[in-house]
Design goal:
With about 300 residues, the protein is mainly alpha-helical. It is about 65% helix and about 5% strand. The protein has one domain. The longest helix has about 50 residues. It is elongated. The two termini are about 10 Å apart.
């Protein structure tokens, strides 16, 4: 497996995501400005969006941990987790990430941060209580691999942009539904243009969940397989992660702190049991059975 090629591919995907979302955000801003009959909102909206994205990107670790209700791990209470994180950081040739814990009985974990120097690995208390050391090492190695392969950059940008797009689409939809848009034109052409703007705006707002799923799909499956393979390389023991995934697959607990915007960050889908729109077509994670089979074939 050519890891350098995968890293390069991830960087291109980052650029691709930026283009798509900036185009979408511009479209939303244009429709809002047209509806309000004031195009000064387009450049203002663009500046606000850029500032929001930059600030969010550079604070992504604190934002995601806050949303997830994660707290810094206690070095004494979670000594094994700290030791494993340090071992995997050395194996990956990376700085040791900060370690966080989510108080939840579900078994899951994620990594976040804009780069390896500002990375965070977070596990649930369910991981600590219900996985043995080899399994927990496999899980941490998987998350460390996301950091090493720069998958985390793509995931973080996707989460930020999906969230921003959802907020703006919701604002646009509310404007149309609750009478925030009125035509100032007295002629038929002006009224038709306003009707078109309303239809386009509603379509944009409705398509936002689809876009979110497409992004999750784009950043998910190949990167999960790659992180599994990289974890096996770091630990030299594929069975540890395979066994952990087997336990996760049997786990019926739903992670309360997870949401649609952050679900793709986790090692396994934390929203299992919930009916997500078009989930069967755009899964954020490969089937656990396939991942286990690939690991055990190594």
């Amino acid at each position: 497996m050519d890891f350098y090629r995968e890293i390069s591919s991830n960087n291109r995907m980052t650029f691709f995501l930026f283009i798509i979302f900036f185009a979408l955000l511009f479209a939303l801003g244009y429709v809002i400005s047209f509806a309000l009959s004031n195009y000064i909102f387009v450049p203002i909206f663009g500046i606000i969006a850029i500032v929001y994205i930059v600030v969010s990107y550079y604070n992504s670790d604190s934002i995601v941990t806050a949303i997830s209700g994660a707290k810094p791990a206690d070095e004494r209470k979670h000594a094994v987790l700290f030791n494993i994180a340090e071992e995997m950081a050395i194996a990956a040739g990376l700085p040791k990430p900060r370690v966080f814990v989510i108080e939840d009985t579900a078994i899951n974990a994620f990594a976040t941060g804009r780069n390896p120097k500002h990375s965070v690995i977070c596990v649930t208390t369910g991981c600590l209580a219900r996985l043995n050391r080899e399994q927990l090492t496999g899980v941490v190695a998987h998350e460390m691999s996301h950091i090493r392969n720069y998958d985390i950059k793509v995931m973080t940008i996707a989460a930020i942009l999906v969230g921003l797009t959802v907020l703006l689409s919701d604002l646009l939809l509310r404007m149309f539904l609750f009478g925030g848009v009125k035509s100032n034109s007295s002629n038929k052409e002006g009224n038709i243009l306003m009707l078109v703007a309303i239809v386009v705006g509603i379509i944009l707002a409705i398509l936002t969940p689809v876009i979110a799923q497409l992004i999750n799909f784009a950043i998910s499956r190949k990167r999960e397989y790659l992180a599994d393979a990289s974890a096996a390389q770091l630990t030299r023991y594929p069975e540890g992660l395979a066994s952990a995934l087997e336990t996760i697959g049997r786990d019926k607990e739903i992670l309360e702190a997870a949401n649609k915007a952050t679900a793709h960050l986790y090692i396994a889908n934390p929203l299992k049991g919930q009916k997500l729109w078009m989930q069967s077509l755009f899964e954020t994670h490969p089937p656990i059975e396939d991942r286990i089979a690939k690991l055990r074939a190594m």
